[in-house]
């Protein structure tokens, strides 16, 4: 368990749970689910003493549940927000820049069913996606999410993380390290002014992980499109394509839960009592801006998922359309060749009849004339069908 006292100018770690309210700033109490379960009585006593109310049993169950979807709830004293994040990703800088590297999504064993998270059953690929001739595990099958819970009080933010949570490590290090330096000059990184501000920053960082994941997902969908539309190669990896589509649907459900939770939070924020000082009014307006920014980022992720679903569906339809066109080309060529050989078979059939008196049968040059006639008929029919473009494939066009 970690406790951090955050003031407008600095952030200082605190040994143990706070025993009295902060004169300036607020306390950030962060722990894992196992730590919350082990130290629940002490944490409840601290929240009741400094926050005015302990967590109700239902909210404690939500914070301890590793399979809970994103959701928002509130009481008259505190708010509870649960937000599912990527299991492995990199957060952007604390000042809101989105120049973070693309996330490396690891292959988890599996996720609990019915939690709105993408299940994983395929092993990680051992080769590049460029080798499309081999069976590869799509990236979308390996998306795993884990919940991060927040209990928001006036001067306390309790965050509950999974073990080894990068969100906790990232923000903890950035807050206690102070202002960053660039070219020997300090770059101001404004401290969170209240618990809601810190919570929204962490949520925004988690959403940015999904935004960065779009690049990887787009490359995977492009790979499937190229594999489906290769004209001279039979595609048989339909099970993986189905897994990709199912994973996209599950990822869409994750984003829908996140959007509903943030919308509920935004609506509750509008119902907070108005502030009476210009500084507090400005801080309240910044909270609204951050909330709208988080919601806009979630909507961008949802929009991109829908576009990828349409791209995958379009690629499948184009694949079957291309297969149908190739079958039509083959049938047209076979029909044309059959039409060319029909008169030749007719001539051969006539001269193969068992009649004694047939023209050219008993002549010395009859066979030569029959061959010449058959060659002329073949050349004429080939020229006719070629002119009518019956012997050309649509790919050559």
Description:
Pfam families: CorA. Helix content is 51%, strand content 12%. It is an alpha+beta fold and 397 residues long. The protein has a 7-stranded mixed beta sheet with strand order 2-1-3-7-6-5-4, with helices on both faces. Strands 8-9 form a two-stranded antiparallel sheet. The two termini are 69 Å apart. The chain has helices at residues 33-38, 40-51, 57-64, 166-177, 195-228, 238-270, 278-351, 366-387, and strands at residues 2-6, 11-14, 26-32, 71-74, 79-86, 145-152, 156-161, 180-182, 185-187. 29% of the residues are buried. α6 runs antiparallel to α7 and α7 (278-351) runs antiparallel to α8.
Q: Name the poorly predicted regions.
A: 90-138, 180-188
State the secondary-structure class. Answer: alpha+beta
Specify the helix fraction band: 40-55%
Query: Can you summarize the main beta sheet?
Result: 7 strands, mixed
Return Rg in Å: 34 Å
The gross shape turns out to be rod-shaped
User: What is the number of strand segments?
Assistant: 9
- Strand fraction: 5-15%
Distance linking N and C termini: 69 Å
- The H-and-E topology, N to C, reads as EEEHHHEEEEHEEHHHH
On the 0 to 100 scale, the average pLDDT is: 78
Number of helices: 8
Keywords: Cell membrane, Membrane, Transmembrane, Transmembrane helix, Transport
InterPro entries: CorA_cytoplasmic_dom, CorA_TM1_TM2, MgTranspt_CorA/ZnTranspt_ZntB
Membrane topology: Multi-pass membrane protein
Pfam family, one: CorA
């Amino acid at each position: 368990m970690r406790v951090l006292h955050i003031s407008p100018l600095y952030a200082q770690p605190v040994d143990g749970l706070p025993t009295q309210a902060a004169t300036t700033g607020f306390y950030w109490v962060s722990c894992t689910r196992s730590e919350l379960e082990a130290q629940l009585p002490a944490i409840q006593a601290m929240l009741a003493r400094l926050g005015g109310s302990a967590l109700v049993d239902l909210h404690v169950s939500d914070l301890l549940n590793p399979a809970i979807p994103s959701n928002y709830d509130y009481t008259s004293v505190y708010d509870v927000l649960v937000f599912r994040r990527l299991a492995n990703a990199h957060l952007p800088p604390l000042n809101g820049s989105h120049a973070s590297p693309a996330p490396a999504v690891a292959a988890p064993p599996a996720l609990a069913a019915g939690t709105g998270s993408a299940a994983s059953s395929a092993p990680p690929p051992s080769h590049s996606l460029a080798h499309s001739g081999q069976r590869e595990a799509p990236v979308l099958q390996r998306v795993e999410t884990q919940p991060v819970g927040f209990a928001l009080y006036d001067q306390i933010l309790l965050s509950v993380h999974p073990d080894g949570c990068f969100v906790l490590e990232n923000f903890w290090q950035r807050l206690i390290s102070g202002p960053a330096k660039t070219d020997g000059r300090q770059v101001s990184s404004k401290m969170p002014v209240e618990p809601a501000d810190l919570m929204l920053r962490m949520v925004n960082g988690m959403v940015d992980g999904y935004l960065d994941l779009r690049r990887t997902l787009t490359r995977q969908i492009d790979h499937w499109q190229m594999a489906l539309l290769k004209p001279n190669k039979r595609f048989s990896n339909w099970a993986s394509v189905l897994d990709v589509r199912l994973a996209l649907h599950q990822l869409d459900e994750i984003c829908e839960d996140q959007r509903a939770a943030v919308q509920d939070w935004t609506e509750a924020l509008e119902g907070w009592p108005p502030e009476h000082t210009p500084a507090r009014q400005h801080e309240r307006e910044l909270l609204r801006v951050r909330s709208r920014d988080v919601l806009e980022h979630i909507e961008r992720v949802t929009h991109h998922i829908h576009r990828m679903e349409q791209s995958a569906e379009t690629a499948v339809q184009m694949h079957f359309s291309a297969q149908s066109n190739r079958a039509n080309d083959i049938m047209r060529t076979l029909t044309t060749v059959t039409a060319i050989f029909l008169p030749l078979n007719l001539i051969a059939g006539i001269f193969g009849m068992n009649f004694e008196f047939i023209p050219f049968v008993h002549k010395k040059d009859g066979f030569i004339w029959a061959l010449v006639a058959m060659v002329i008929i073949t050349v004429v029919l080939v020229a006719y069908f070629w002119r009518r473009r019956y012997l050309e494939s649509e790919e050559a066009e």
